[in-house]
Every structure is written in structure tokens, then in C-alpha cells.
Amino acid sequence: MWWRSRSRVVGIIPARYASSRFQGKPLALILGKPMIQRTWEQARLAKTLDALVVATDDERIRQCCEEFGAEVVMTSEKCPNGTERCNEAVKRLKRKFDIVVNIQGDEPLIDPDIIDGVVMALKASPDAMCSTAVTSLKPQDASDTNRVKCIVDKQGYAIYFSRGLLPFNKKGVANDKFPYLLHLGIQCYDAHFLSMYPLIAPTALQLEEDLEQLKVIENGYKIKVINVDHDAHGVDSPGDIASIESLMRGRNIA
């Protein structure tokens, strides 16, 4: 079977300049370095990656990334999401990879151990086409639609993802005793499945929730989930930069 050859791994960081909420986000400076460089430097510490590539459709991002030493692949402006940008980037690479890790470019404090964790989880789960990570959801984030929630079965496979509170209860309020799970943005794909992904028609749940991973589940494919202890610090708006910089100063990160 084709999944038995899951050995070579590439990490891809999709990065686009145009954004309705934060124009030019990958180039936003965080303690003097562009955010895309911060993310790349963290991802480069992962032990399971055979290659690390930035995939972009913008010449400014390409030039910036090449200046700090990153490998860059130019992709189409028409890519509808990060997953399809990763797929296009893999096709343009001249090397063959078995696993593709979609690393969010707006996570400048991404833990490299999480990258290694999702890779190892996919390698150990031949019945899964993808793997991802979750962590504990903070109570104050229960109603935040930018914080995607996840539920998993007893074997560690995803049942559903939602922007709403998941699971929901009869009282309609967050239960402070329930271990809600926050989905972290990292996605790990079998390369063969990733090549199929753009050919699968969008699904009703995917479109309603605006969550790519629901197309995978709705078509009957499995997503392996690992639970990690991680304080997510994604950058959604310019106002998030100050808090990221404060955290980095506290950790003595230059």
C-alpha cells in the first residue's frame, strides 16, 4: 500500500500578503524580525523535517524569506486556502516527500515538538490520512469563533471541529468542569492524500463552518489527533503583536 512509505517529510509554511484582517501579516516585525522568519526559525528546530519551505504568492515575501535563508516556492494567487497552497508547493518541488506538514505562518512561537508530534502520529496511524494537535481551551475563549474547538473519540481520532462551543450543553453556557479542546492550526497530511484533496468537492459542513478539515471528515477519512500542553499564540490582528513581544521578552528570546 502507498501509505507504507511514509518516510520523507517536508514542512511548508503558507504565507500570503493579502489579508482582510491584517494586510502584510507575514512581514510584520516582531522584536525586529518579520513574523514569517520567527515562525521559520522555530519550525527549523523540528527533528522530523527533511526540508522546510515557505510557499507564497507575493514577491515581497519571497524576497524577505530568501534574505534570511529560507527556501521559497512561488504559488498561485488563486489558491483558496493554505492546504491547497501546500499541495501546489509540493508539486513544484523537485524532490519526493511522503508527508507534508502545513505549518501556520502566524504562529511565531510554534513549539517544534508539536511538529514532530503530528509527524510521528501520522507515521504510527496508517489508517489516518491526516494528523493534527489540540490543547486545553481557556474558559475565556469558549465563545471566540476564531478559536476552533475539537472533539475526539476514544482512539484519538477527530469526530468534529467547530467555531462554536463543542460539545454544547442544554444550559447553553461553558461548563467549567468539562475539558474542552482547542484545535491548533498545524495540519499534517499524507502526501498522496494531499494531492487528492483539491479534487474533492467542498462539503456543506466545511462551507458552513469555514473549516478545511471538515471536508476530510465528511468524506469518511480519519484525522489522528494528539493532545499537547501548549499555550497558543497565533497572530490574528496587529494588536496581537505586542502580547507576542511581551512573551518573547519574558522568555529572553532575541
TrEMBL record:
Keywords: Nucleotidyltransferase, Transferase. One of its GO terms (molecular function) is 3-deoxy-manno-octulosonate cytidylyltransferase activity. GO terms for biological process: CMP-keto-3-deoxy-D-manno-octulosonic acid biosynthetic process. Its main location: membrane. It is found in: Membrane. Gene3D superfamilies: Spore Coat Polysaccharide Biosynthesis Protein SpsA, Chain A (3.90.550.10). InterPro entries: Cytidylyl_trans (IPR003329), KdsB (IPR004528), Nucleotide-diphossugar_trans (IPR029044). Belongs to the KdsB family. HAMAP family: KdsB (MF_00057). This is 3-deoxy-manno-octulosonate cytidylyltransferase. It comes from Selaginella moellendorffii (Spikemoss). The lineage of its organism: Eukaryota, Viridiplantae, Streptophyta, Embryophyta, Tracheophyta.
